[in-house]
Amino acid sequence: MSQTCAPPAPLYLDCDTGVDDALALAYLLASPEIDLVGVGTVHGNVDAPQGATNTLDLLALAGRDDVPVAVGAHDPLAGSYDGGVPHVHGRNGVGDVVLPASGRSPAAGTAVDLLLRLSHEHAGRLRVVAVGPLTNLALALRADPTLTKRVVDVTVMGGAALHPGNVTPVGEANIANDPEAAAEVLSADWDVTLVPLDVTMAHLLEETDRKTLLEAGTTLAPWLGEVLDLYFGFHVPTFGRRCSALHDPLAAAVAVGGVTPTLAPRVPVVVDTTDGPGRGQTVCDLRGRYAGYPDVPGARTRVVLATDAPLTPQLLERLLTL
Amino acid sequence: MSQTCAPPAPLYLDCDTGVDDALALAYLLASPEIDLVGVGTVHGNVDAPQGATNTLDLLALAGRDDVPVAVGAHDPLAGSYDGGVPHVHGRNGVGDVVLPASGRSPAAGTAVDLLLRLSHEHAGRLRVVAVGPLTNLALALRADPTLTKRVVDVTVMGGAALHPGNVTPVGEANIANDPEAAAEVLSADWDVTLVPLDVTMAHLLEETDRKTLLEAGTTLAPWLGEVLDLYFGFHVPTFGRRCSALHDPLAAAVAVGGVTPTLAPRVPVVVDTTDGPGRGQTVCDLRGRYAGYPDVPGARTRVVLATDAPLTPQLLERLLTL
Fold first, then answer.
1. How many domains does chain A have?
2. What span, in angstroms and rounded, lies between the C-alpha atoms of A316 and A215?
3. Residue A286: closest CA among chain B residues belongs to which residue?
4. Which residues of chain A are within 8 Å of residue B237 when distances are taken between CB atoms?
5. Residue span of the structural domain in which B223 resides
6. Do B289 and A162 lie within an 8 Å CB cutoff?
7. Is B87 a catalytic residue?
8. CATH code at position B300
9. Which residue of A122, A135, A310, B3 has the fewest C-beta atoms within 10 A of its own C-beta?
């Protein structure tokens, strides 16, 4: 059976838009495999209301004012929003580019309200992709633990398994920005696919790709090229050149099947919620390394360690349709 | 200048003998680059007195009753000795093989006394290799912080950087058996070379190598072949065949220059001493990965991530002389 025969799966995106969140959002909008039925925003790269504004503006540029956007948690479960990362994503989250304002307001209610409502509307079919801190998902689980029964699966961009972290030696930003929430989400009764730095750092967008976006002649893609400018500069100390890791788009691509994990063992994953040097680490039990990483019985989290193909060509192809 | 022109460097070995400790001890005895001037034992694979008995017996088989052996710490700095790992190293630490008894007693005084005495006798020249928990070294530093001024360098088998642990998902046995001691040793004012699982798991002794030892026709080597039997069995679930990782011998070889690190950045290393899931982890700051792991200014610990050559041929060559 060809995939195109199946109706597109309803998908809820939770994000902190964010430059690479913007790419993930656009990728999902251009993906026939899924139907983006709602977006919730969360503190992280920017504050949650700014993330919603960015999302609304991007959706408008894509002609998708039909997609509801709800503002979610302003603060992590413990502590408070740290002010974001203006040197990475710009003060406004989209590389300090001023996008045309959508004129649309966020939906009434919180991201948790939206997620729970969609989980009933699409019970047994809804898929969830989370590319920011997991606060909204944790709060939704607290509000209604039966959420897990109505969601097909959860794909999370986050963590570092056998790879250095990006905000501490072992901590990746999405998880480290709310370790308590991540711990609750990863221990809940549902299947999670974790897309960590181990793989996202291996998929890069280059300056020639950005130029392709800038010259696309479409509505949204050139704006994405502009938005990427500052983010490309941030990656120079890491990679020695202007480029961008494709963190959030890779999680989106894994979720929709655009990229297929070739090594993704189901193993116990515990989030470090101490105040020690490991705070925010996704402690993945990968001791099966020399046995080919067999699944560990009872484990519900797949940790993606390798994928079948580079995301970049497909990402570009899809973004150029917008 | 050929290395053979230099007088052999005095070297103190701290160990919890232990099957692979026995190999490291023998390798050092057969290494012209160094002069083994003393051995201290510590809790770990077995209790410290048993480790000393094993060491004395192995030294006797090598005709080296001149090397002083002192019993060190019975317990880690926090908590108490956990009973060792009889399924790995045998109840007696040497694979339940009954070695010919040396008849010699340990030196008077503790391993700390021995290390401090040697550090004065060989001030400015003494090298230290530690292949067990770091309790003795930490206690020596507490007793005399100026120890660091008299020791050339410290090579430690321990930790896991971008590799799974072996006693927890992120914890390696030597460090996890006394994280507090490791934290003190790795933050002291001396140069430490950390030889973690990242590299030790890549150097294996195979059944054909063990047979070579068994048939050596020398005094010590055939006993080492016997001692390895149980340890080879322990590795079957990991590697799918009888073999052995060369943890402790690799640290010894790195220390004497028999194997040269080709990638060993000096980076901040913090030991997780929390009670969380990361307890005992060596949190190494390897965020310079994509820039070729430049040394981090001020860092005193080299983390060995790659070596130039397989240890096994050289290890065998040296062991066959004993």
1. 1
2. 12
3. B164
4. 291
5. 3-319
6. no
7. no
8. 3.90.245.10
9. B3
